[in-house]
Amino acid sequence: MKPVLSVKNIYKIYGASCLHCTSSEDVNGKSNQCRHCGSIISCRNVSFDLYHEEVLGIVGESGSGKSTLLKLLYFEEDPTSGTMHINPLNYKQFTIPGHCTDFLFDVNLFGLNSFRKRLIRNHLMGMVYQNPHLGLKLHISAGGNIGERLLMAGCRNIEQIRSRARFLLEKTEVDVERLDDLPQYFSGGMQQRVQIAKALSNKPLLLFLDEPTTGLDLSVQAKVLDLIKSLQREMNLTTIIVSHDLGIIKHLTTRTIVMKNGVVVESGLTDQILEDPQHEFTQLLVNSTL
Ligand SMILES: Nc1ncnc2c1ncn2[C@@H]1O[C@H](COP(=O)(O)OP(=O)(O)OP(=O)(O)O)[C@@H](O)[C@H]1O
Ligand SMILES: [Mg+2]
Ligand SMILES: [Zn+2]
User: Fold this and answer.
1) pTM of the full predicted structure?
2) Does residue 29 line the site of ligand 1, with CB under 6 A?
3) Nearest to residue 257, comparing CAs of 2, 15, 5, 76?
4) Which of 79, 85, 178, 246 has CB 3.0 to 4.6 Å from 6, enough for a Cys bridge?
């Protein structure tokens, strides 16, 4: 089976960069800074495949490049180099309303123009951020936030938009009565639920979650995680979740990649990684959460 998403040899360098940034071998993730020019190598030669309906975890300490990687996949930033390919399972029937999708296949998505990248993001991707300020306009109603996303995905009928927004709030267990209320007056847990509703509004092929529960109280965290898990099963989502919490990774994912200073130091089945971590850093991470 072909992966839905295939990412190869991604580098993201912040700074002037020099020849040494990419040529120096640092497979163990000793530092993310180039000794010669001082640039930050936020992602170093990152490759992975993501399969249909799989939940892939990205785990690593603060500054290891997890958020950078998601930003690249979501076209918020451009990589310094590397490729990303997309292969929906049944791509012959695969459509974006009003657009021919031939341009999507067998092409490095990073090389597409910004219009096409936006099209992919609006129709095929959803993102949930740790910080609700990044994913929501807090001064616009919950329904308005979801509606805005639906408009970007080509939906024009106001009644349809409102009914889909209601449906999504129900799905994410937000009181539908709050449709016209502003998220700035919602609790942190509710804001994350609205973010999830918004991210799911366009029925994305790919859902990206960047530490979606990190800012929440433990009990709220558990509820939001359970919600993510049940939506994942129900909607057959293909998901990448970033976390520094191995408990969350264990709870939600089947495969995991472990990052350190921009390098993938270990990858494999989550159970195997947790039971028998190979890399020194993963061992440390696993032992520290026991
Ligand atoms: N715009 C930027 N300019 C310069 N350096 C950056 C920029 N964005 C990120 N970095 C650097 O890239 C590295 C990776 O950052 P990133 O935010 O991806 O880490 P992270 O794994 O998500 O960390 P955290 O767990 O704290 O969220 C860090 O050293 C960070 O300082
Ligand atoms: Mg981050
Ligand atoms: Zn350099």
Assistant:
1) 0.95
2) no
3) 5
4) 85
